[in-house]
Amino acid sequence: MPLGKGKAIFPFLIALIYGILIVSVPWEELRGVPYPDIENYEVRYAAVKNYGLSYFKIDSGVLNYLSAEYLWYFLLASSSLSGLDFDLFVTLCSFSAAFISTFWLSSRLHAGWAFVLLINPISIDLFSSQLRSALAFGLVLFAISFHRKGLLRRGWAYSFFVAACFVHTSMLLVIFVYGISILLERRRFKSTETRLLLSIGVGVFLAAAYALLANSVLGALGDRRSLDADEARSFAYIGFWLLLGIALSIRSTVFALNNWRFYYGVLVLFFVGVTELFAVPSFRILAMSLPIIFSVFPLIKRQDARFVIFSVLSYQAILFYYWVN
Predict the structure, then answer these.
(1) Which one of 12, 93, 138, 242 is CB 3.0 to 4.6 Å from 131, fit for a cystine?
(2) Same domain for 230 and 303?
(3) CA of 132: how far to CAs of 31, 195, 315, in Å?
(4) Are 49 and 80 contacting, i.e. CB atoms less than 8 angstroms apart?
(5) Closest Cα to residue 123, out of 86, 97, 88?
(6) Domains in the chain: how many in total?
(7) Boundary residue ending a domain (169, 186, 209)
(8) CA-CA distances (angstroms) from residue 226 to 131, 185, 214, 284, 319?
(9) pLDDT tens-digit profile of 171-210?
(10) Which of 78, 81, 54, 56 is nearest to 67 (CA)?
(11) Which domain covers residue 261, as residue numbers?
């Protein structure tokens, strides 16, 4: 199977099939573990129907709206008040997020490989339960698609970037990483290796800053969340992704070193790997970013890409075993 993208119709069909798969299979029953985020959304969905918009008490001001992720709750409330069934609301959100990410990846990697790579517990869990994160990242992918296509479309891109932050505040970090990746792609140094080392250095620096300052920043914003060390992954779980970042760095090509997706992938892999080693949970950033990370594979040598894909699929098979048992 070739690694490059195919005809335009294939990404659409693969995204459609993947989205239907995500919303058709009862993943929660298959695992035998309830999705707490979905249960939380259902409680709020019912509360809005009973008490109206007054249920959400958000002080005025841009920072308050941002920390409250106002756009998500506006979507939640408007859907509830319109009489839309909650299960249908979840289905629409899950399908939309899965479709957008799959279509974006299938437009940059062969559609068959894109489909197979996204059939993994990490992505399935994201699209079927972590709706805010998945939808917000979908808006970021929309923005990225528009950002590099002329001044008029850049206006749409910035609108999607802003909207994504008001759905989930973690998009501020994602957009920052994207911005750094674009700068590394465009900036010219004496050697391309300098840009690679910078991307790794930025990833490690951001990880250290995030581990030390994230709780303080969340508190300053009035965010209700905190970073619980119990949610961090073990080294056995996160080690694979850190090794993948190292492998991509070692086997990088000139072609890869001139593409922002490579820098984004390496930066995220090192960032998440280091923060998780510090017992600071950040794995959701990697879960959302998998379409961009997987899109790096066609940028490296074909034999290296095939080995990496085989390794990823083997790792995902092991994850599936533990995910359903």
Answers:
(1) 93
(2) yes
(3) 21, 33, 26
(4) yes
(5) 97
(6) 2
(7) 169
(8) 19, 34, 8, 14, 27
(9) 999 999 999 999 888 877 666 678 888 889 999 998 888 8
(10) 56
(11) 170-325
